[in-house]
Amino acid sequence: MTAVDDRRVHDVFENLVVPEGFKAELIRGEIVMTAGPDKVHNRIVQSVQDQVPSDRWERLQTQDVAFPGEESEPQPDLVVLEIGADDGPGRLVPSPAVTMLVEVVSRTSVHRDYVEKRSIYAAGGVPVYLLIDPFKATCLVMTEPVGTGPTADYQSGRTRKFGDPVPLPIIGIDLDTSRFGTLPPLTATP
């Protein structure tokens, strides 16, 4: 894609009118529109948000994040940043201000969450990526981001089953997953 094309995509994305009940994200130069999440998804996000201490952390749902060097403006399910890390106006939180990003897998987001967003978040240096999968009933905590572009990744990853506590030392909690809802397994997931 050329610089002119990149600007056009960004301009279209900035001015896109998103129908009610949908969300739009810019993922590596492509505009991706998806239907709103179901109740299981929303309840999981709410549970995580409620457990992150609000006296130290901002917990922003569906907040757009800017990634330097990436043609991406994803809208994670939950953005966690230290209070005061980004007090500026606007719709974009710069990725260097972010401590943890949370995504809850949906039927249409499996590849994006496990592959594309994983490399985008690692390339942006986000210290913790928490991927919650209600189809597998697991939480994957990824830390130690390295690399740039599509080959960026997290060096460390640990999986916990729903019902087991998920240690998040950088946030200062053990996430209680015992009340996370599940969905019927998908036929093919990464």
TrEMBL record:
PANTHER family associated with the record: SLL1072 PROTEIN (PTHR35400:SF3), SLR1083 PROTEIN (PTHR35400)
Annotated ranges, domain Putative restriction endonuclease: 14-169
Organism from which the protein derives: Streptomyces phaeofaciens
Listed name of the protein: Putative restriction endonuclease domain-containing protein
Database matches in Gene3D superfamilies: tt1808, chain A
Domain of life: Bacteria
